[in-house]
Amino acid sequence: MIILCLNCGSSSVKYSLFDWENKRNIAVGLVERVGQPEAVISQEAPGKEKFEKTAPCPDFKTAIEWVLETLTDKEHGVIENMGIIGAVGHRVVHGGPLDKSTLITPEIITLLKSISDLAPLHNPANILGMEAAMHVMPNVQHIVTADTAWHQTMPSHTYMYALPYEWYEKYHIRRYGFHGTSFLYNAKRASVLLGKDPFDCNLIICHIGNGASVNAVKNGVSYDTSMGLTPLEGLVMGTRSGDFDASIAFQMMEKENISPKDMYNILNKKSGVLGITGKYQDRRDIELAAEKGDKRAELAIQMEAYRIKKYIGAYAAALGRVDAIVFTAGVGERGPLYRGLSLSNMEHLGIKCDAERNKSAMTKNAESLISTDDSKVKVFVIPTDEEIVYAEDVAAIVNGHYDIHTKFKYTFQDKNYRNSLRDESLKKELIKKPFLKNAIINTPKELLG
Fold it and tell me: Which residue of the set 147, 294, 323, 393 is catalytic?
């Protein structure tokens, strides 16, 4: 079965194509600047040069059609025609009560639209992508995977807020958590690296990107997480404030005559490291500015790293025993500065970061160990792979043997699992960056040379 996985953001479509019978990823790509006159599509596939093209892309329907044209292109494509695609997997950020992936029906679309206000930066775009893809490909099954599903195992004392209980009863106000697909993948991969049963692992997983959250995993399932009802709570992020005293919002609404809608926009789109620096949300830009003496950039780095450290400490206390800490996503995978600062002076918790290994772990193509050999708590950098989770869920649903992750074993839980596309990229990367070998683990010797 050939499976197409789509992840539609506010102005982008990230996609992957899987040949599930042979368990291999045959293409990955990204359409950026959807809705703009100069959108860009890029695609990578094993054995082919990276393809890029710029053209107008007014809406998601056009973007999906563009993806299919690129996948079936005679020169750059990887399949003969779109009829080969057997099913499509979609990501949605907020799934409300959904606890596992499910077939998309009109009722599911209605449910997702009804909770769009809980993830206003993502759910509307996710749904537009679903509807566009279903219009372009009406004869295949479409399946949705919700980022909140992984966290449905949280106990009530961690997901409830100390607010009037009637709000929970009437409006389902509670902690939902996000980045669940990434956390699921990383929890299973960490258990492989530890050589343990996944349900005997206590983990702290740090998904650090433009959006960022931390997950406490107890006995292999989500126990607590830093994001809340919406993705606004928790860590300092690219444009989101994370934790702060709620009374500040009310005071500033009164002082600056700010409407509730505008305040919500400020907290989601104009805060975080962008709010602190006044200029930057990309951590690479912030690091460069800090190196040049920009004090606000330095402050943003310190604030973000400190918040990560605080959550690691809190979740270490909540879990009691920690087998490993995992860093993942863009900054988590390629941000040694942030990892190093957030792990500094934590030896009393059994956490020792190896400075050289940490500095060397800067690739999205390989799993790395960045703790010292005598560290009681292992620290891994694991490149996330949400698309493989979508693809496997889709294949299992279509074939009729899918279930919630506590009753389902993924192929990437096998100790011999390899991502062929990442292996090929890593081989090229090691030629330019041989220092990467210092931290890489669980990689065939022929790749390391």
Answer: 147
